Amino acid sequence: MSLPQGAPPTRTTRVTLLTEGTYPHSHGGVSVWCDQLVQGMPDIDFDVIAVTGTGREPVVWDLPPHVSNVWSVPMWGDPPAGRPPRGRARRELTDAYGRFLAALLDPRAEDGFPAALYAMARAAADGTLSPFLRTDPAITVLTSLWNRPGIAVREARPTLHDALTATALLEHALRPLTAPLPATGVAHAVSGGVAALPGLAALEQHGVPLLLTEHGVYLRERYLGYRTAPYRWPVKAVVLGFFRLLARESYRKAALITPGNRYNRLWEEEGGADPESIRTVYNGVDPAAFPAAGPEPEVPTLSWAGRVDPIKDLETLIRAFALVRAQIPQARLRLFGGTPRGGEAYRERCEALAAELGHGDAVAFEGRVDDIKDAYAAGNVVMLSSISEGFPFTLIEAMSCGRATVSTDVGGVREAVGDTGLVVAPRDPAAMAAAALDLLGDPARRRAMGEAARLRVIEQFTLRQTIDTFRAIYLELPSRARKSAAGPAPAPLSAAGVTGSVAL
């Protein structure tokens, strides 16, 4: 998407995208969304602060000239340079860190979290925070705190190993505070959690407004992930306490929160966000880029597209397919998408499950496909089996291609599908298989659902609506911040000030 023909670029503001594990170093739905925003707004200057794994990840997207800078902040690479503080600076940082930990572990001390976090952000900018967190005094602060009477985790008898583990995890999680902070424009965090840290620091130090977009609910996904993490409860209490209070602070300080669906909005309100600061902005696709897919495959086929990741719950999909194949022996399951680095064990587990169930010959991991449309065209029915989603691109792309879908009832899936596909409970292979069999056995119903799905995308979920909405937000927020600094706080940004696919 581009500016209207003949319109000169306005260059009226600068946007710093704050990402984690996505754009521009990785493919996937959120990365596609970021690329859409950047490519669709040649009139806006962009920078990117990208939280990455090791810092050695290559840039995998073609960046246009109006992306000026990309800074990578490795969470798990070499530690940031710097030295531990000394003298008064050491005492002040030790005190701030103590208040920070107390907020994570003691509900009575939670109000101290913001001030402590911003004190630590300033230490990170000075190059002293990470070195301090790698010293014995930081460990001592934690061991002293969680052995105090009245601290709940004390009953779990935390060990020195727990303290070392929790402190190391916090040190890594706080590394985004070392990034160069934007001093003007808008900081746009495209997820919650650690990606928002530079935005919060930029707001506190420079008054840069923070825009927060959550595609999935970051805090919910951390809870899901840590449920099976190999840590004892004292470690989980510290880390999840950090993510919970970070979410609350992000919701509280964001000038505007733009979840990708109404489901996320409920979590954000529960987490402390002012309802007046939340505007739902749906993802969009270009229907011309995802035209009707055409003839279906002759062999009954279920297709899936996405990254091979536990949150996509391919194990449930494979178990459901086994039930489908019991009724339709010639059926096939084709899985399109790459395996992220570090996710190889999960893919191997899924392949082993298919073989164990006796269907390894009918389940194909196709890898990344050059044209994602081919993944949707490969199936009579397109499946989505995730246990957590925002407003999934793969779903609305498949709908635009005119394919009937079976999806799990997570995030904004039901909002996307409406009555143009079948929605089942997550982690329920029997329900998923029943829905797939229903559609495989009824070509007329599949065709009617596919046609209705494409029409729904054209009417409600186009890329032009999304781009126009965010351009209006980008131009409005700096102006509002300046007016707020000059006088009484303005009224909340209303739907009238944001065009496009906005749902209140």
TrEMBL record:
Give every DUF3492 domain span: 14-276
The ranges of region (Disordered) come to 483-504
Q: Give one Pfam family, short name only.
A: Glyco_trans_1_4
| Biased segments, Low complexity type | 484-497
**InterPro entries named among the record's database cross-references:** DUF3492, PelF-like
PANTHER family assigned:
BLL3647 PROTEIN (PTHR12526:SF636), GLYCOSYLTRANSFERASE (PTHR12526)
Indicate what this protein is called per its UniProt record.
D-inositol 3-phosphate glycosyltransferase
